[in-house]
Fold each of these.
Amino acid sequence: MKYEQINNKLFIENRKRFVAQMKPNSIAIFTSNDIFPRNGDSAFKYRQGSDIFYLSGLDQEETILVLYPDAPVAAYKEVAYVRETNEHIAVWEGEKYTKEKAREVSGINSISWNDNFLNAQLGAMLNQASHIYLNLNENDRAESKIATQDVRLFNELKAKYPLHNFERSAPIMAALRSIKQEIEIDIMQDACNITESAFRKVLDFVKPGIMEYEVEAEIIAEFIRKRGNGHAYEPIVASGANACVLHYVENNRECKDGDLLLMDFGCEYANYASDLTRTIPVNGKFSPRQKEVYQACLNVHHKANDLMNPGITLNEYNSEVKKLMQSALIDISLIDKTAAQKEKDALTLKYFPHGTSHYLGLDVHDIGNRYAKMEENMCFTIEPGIYIREEGIGIRIENDFIVKSGKNIDLMKNIPIEVDEIEDLMNA
């Protein structure tokens, strides 16, 4: 892995927090992501499953974690199964975990080879347990038709052990992962710092005539240079009217004099995501209208941060920010106050069609309960946007925040955001 090894105290504590929520005499099983085929004999770049990584730190394919806190045998209380290496694998794929390294990374004493998993060892544990926790993908944004390893394991165990009680790990994981530990916050700050470095490179690089994909190249180069995994999500580099397409990822247009350039990107470091959006003038100077719209969006961004406090739900918060945006759109003459009152949210949604914030962590759209109240040490983005198709202007401004009862922690506080900062750096 490119990143520095994480202190295994994080994973030890995360497992303690999870097993504390389990029913008596229960066993929980977590599996790695599959290696997904691409074409022929090639596969997509591997990314470990976020939940098993959260609980073990083991960042390798074909890993399985079993937690059985009430096991009658001490060695079965927590076991990690990893892929056994050999000379062929060493030559063709490189280093894999030894048992000693897996212990060091995870803090788990009982390490076994994964070919022992579905044999008598697991059967001995399951025959003693009453409940089996399995971890299906319950992210409410998920739309997958693929039978993942978690799904296949559920089907296999359900057929083999029909009299056991099957339980859901996902609600427990969502609650745990939404509250960030200090080590996690430090890692996310590292990810944001790398993202900052890339953005500053871009400010010095952008000028009329460059292509959007050239900007994307500058970003990924800096990510890799600073030991990042790569992009936390597909980057958006959208100039001119492209910025009004919310998920524009072609990044193939020329950046022209007088255009704005909207960039939505974030480094993934140690499997933790960052998520930044900035909008800058290609020629280094905002026009009066661009500056007016940008400042309106930035004002909503700042006020949204003031609204984000423990005790408010994400839905309540997004509703309040929508009111702020409606006022901002009236101020810059995009919508009429009387018409806005009649149409309610319809006119606001024309220029601001998405939510303001989402959970952030091991996934860029991290798991969490949008109906639950915000708590300290939750992490959210704040990303208002104004999109004026008829003017070819699209502006979005986004930072990542840790919720606190006093002042929220802005993980991107050092990244230029004000009009004067951006213009000064681009024209230095």
Amino acid sequence: MKKFSAMIATLFVLIMSGGAIGANSGENSFQLKCAACHSIGGGDQIGPDLMGVTKRRDPNWLSQWIIHPDKMLNEKDPIAMELLKKYNQVPMPNLGVTEAEARDLIDYIAAQSETQKKDSAVPAQQTTQEPPSAGVFFGGLKGVQLTALVVFFVLSTIVVFVFWQIAKSTRQPVPTIDMKSAYKLRKWFFFGTAVLVFGTLIATLPKTPYPDDFQTPDRLVYVAAKQFGFSFSSEPITSASDAGQSTIINSLELPQGALIEFRVTSLDVNHGFALYDADHSIIAQTQAMPGYTNRLRVRFPKPGTYQILCLEYCGLAHHLMHAAVTVR
């Protein structure tokens, strides 16, 4: 628990900073290490909302808090102790942040705070609320998930009926069995089962992703998972140092129908990388594992926003680990 608390606090340290938009380093650091647990103008999450923090706190205090949080906690700094109490006694660890890195992070938060302030001054357009989907009668399931549920109920009904018939037959005298008819029925049962199995294979095999393995993907997207968020780049990310040097894609847009290859890895613990369509049906998934890079090839058939969620419990903020892909 202490190790996890230190990890959460790691994210909390960087929240009190920001990056200059002109220099990409602050933005990359925030997106990679902070955005999953903290926002700028989106309200408190695991840690505090950072909008306007550069105006609420003295710049020298912020810089020292980012660079030497352990020292400030040991010295019982009043503001540091107040933050520790407010955010569940999670201490801020020393991340080895340099003065230059701290300045970049502070500048980024300041710039983003101003942008959010201007955007909030524009009245939001009214949106029409869509009527509830008929899928609510099935717990909101649609598409493949609803089909799987129906198939499950049908097969379960058949199994229950067969066992009920067998149980009922045991109460009756054993009839004389016509072996010739029994063998004839077995033959038809064998051929019927074979047709069903091979028919299912013929109908479903063309829909598997394996044929795409022989094609060159239209685009490569490198994905680095880290508690608690996903970072995208057009350059390989295999370590934290790569993440700091690579250009992070903050808004991933992909073409409809193109063959996209995601190369997925993790910078800390095991995560899941699952893509969901607008109906909340999973269309593809793979594991994000430290030390490994898994390839996931996907074609997005329709335009829209596809959600990315972590399918493996990876810590306290697991439920906040998500991202999105826009397909046009």
Amino acid sequence: MMAAIAAAGAGAAVTVYERGDRPGRKLFITGKGRCNVTTSVPAEDFFEHISCNPRFLYSAFYGFDNQAVQAFFESHGCPLKREHGERVFPVSDHSSDVIRTLTAEMERLGVRVRFGSRVAGVFIETSPGETEDMPHRCVRGVRLADGHVEAADAVVVCTGGASYPATGSTGDGYRFAEEAGLSVTGRSPALVPMEIAEDWCAELQGLPLRNVTLRLDVVPEPGQKQRKKRRPLYEGFGEMLFTHFGVSGPLVLSASCACTPFGQPLALTLDLKPALTPEQLDARILRDLEERHNKNFKNTLDALLPAKMIPVIVRLSGIDPQKRAAEVTREERRALVDLLKGLRLTVTGLRGFEEAIITRGGVDVRGIDPSTMQAKGTEGLFFAGEVLDVDAVTGGFNLQIAWSTGHLAGISAAGR
């Protein structure tokens, strides 16, 4: 949609081929239906959040950055708000308003949208080039699933990746790229929930945790020596969620990018009280125990932990739940501090494409001109969005990649 708007705004006659029955189906479910449109981080910090091929995005981003995206939506009747973590959402908290803004602008610019039209392939004409090894390739249109060929001077492929295939992103763009002679890197689910070995996670299903620190580490194999002070694969602060299979939420999704492809023993360590040093937490626990000295230990943690979590922590602490608070020893208290500052979870796997927010991997960017988004060696063929081998952490960065690359591809295609 952004590519179509940019191309039509530059004077091109544009047709969007949408295999579904409505536009923006994946956009509709982003941000749990609220649509984290972009990020408000300063432009100079944007690339620190890009996980793969950040340099490829320089031209696209600076040509249509996060400030330009915010200005676009707000000037077209979709007011935005900034929330914690520099996330930007529509004021209404409805992704449908973002889609409505895009579709209204397409209509205003005369963009035709053909629903229920699946593209089977890109029609490319090949002619002799300067050498036998380098034939000249030029886009002439698209071939639809019914066999009909629609003529076009340029084609922009914005088919998405392989995540959430029910929304229509079934990987067609990868095939289009390979048929045009481009390389496609291996794909795997990214920004995806994690499966955990510990069965007590299921007891906490639905419990969100806020303001916690999460660390992801490689666990040494049996008999393997631990490297000294090995850096964690990921470390972050924010929100997470327990599920029936393990953990999810923004922190976990971002951490998942550091362990794909999954193939090594990994562990998550949670600091449930990152604002307190071990000494401060010990003093806090001691005070709570003293104030409730006649209560059983299991009834002393209500001011420290969510109610749903208390039975699990009591069990993991090894402290007798019926023990009087006044009888909890210093050693038991310190063990409880260690547990709260280092709750360990064993990662057994990642969820699949059906639950992945994005796809890691895609069209190899070495075959794409970053200044235009045009495929090298094929005139008139452009790629944008998740179909490319570019991705980022959560927080609106992946949608910003879509807006920036789509905008550049649309303008470049219109200039053909």
